[in-house]
Amino acid sequence: MSFMMFIVASVCVSSCKSDPEETTPPKQEETASIIGKWRWNYSDKGYIILTFNANGTGIHYEFEAPETEKARNFKYEYKDKTLRYTYISTTNQKQVTEYYDVISLTATTLQIKDFADEGISTFTRQ
Asked: CB–CB of 107/28 below 8 Å?
C-alpha cells in the first residue's frame, strides 16, 4: 500500500512541474526600446549618433574627420515599425520629415532603412 501511495504522489508531483516551453520569454525585439543613444559608423572617418528621448525629441549628431561636426534637434514618432523623423533644415529653415522602416530593434542593435534609399543602416546602442 505504501508503494502505491508513493507512485500516486510521484505522478501528482511530476504532472505539476512547469513545462519550460510554456514560459517562453518574449522575443528580444518585442521588448526593446528605441529610447537611448545609438551610433552608426558609416565610414572609417565618419559616424552618426542619434539620441532618442522618452518625450519624442532627440538629437542627431554627425562627425566626419578631420573637422566636420553637425548637430540638430529633431522630433520623432516610432509606431508599427515606422520611424518618422522631423527637423528644421539648416539650409532653408523649413521643416523636413523623413520616414524610415525599422528592420530590426533589439536591446543592442537598431537597423533602419530610408524609404527613399535601398541601404540599411545598423546602429549600436551606446
From this structure: yes
Domains of the chain (ranges; CATH) run 28-125 (2.40.128.280)
**Residue 114: closest CA among 91, 90, 97, 126:** 97
* Global confidence as pTM: 0.73
Going residue by residue through the chain (126 aa), what tens digit of pLDDT does each one get? 544 444 444 444 444 545 555 555 545 445 699 999 999 999 999 999 999 999 999 999 999 988 889 999 999 999 999 999 999 988 889 999 999 999 999 999 999 998 887 789 999 999
In total, the chain counts a number of residues equal to: 126
Cβ–Cβ < 8 Å for 51, 39: no
Per-residue burial over 42-60, b if 16 or more Cβ lie within 10 Å, else e, is: eeeeebbbbbbeeeeebeb
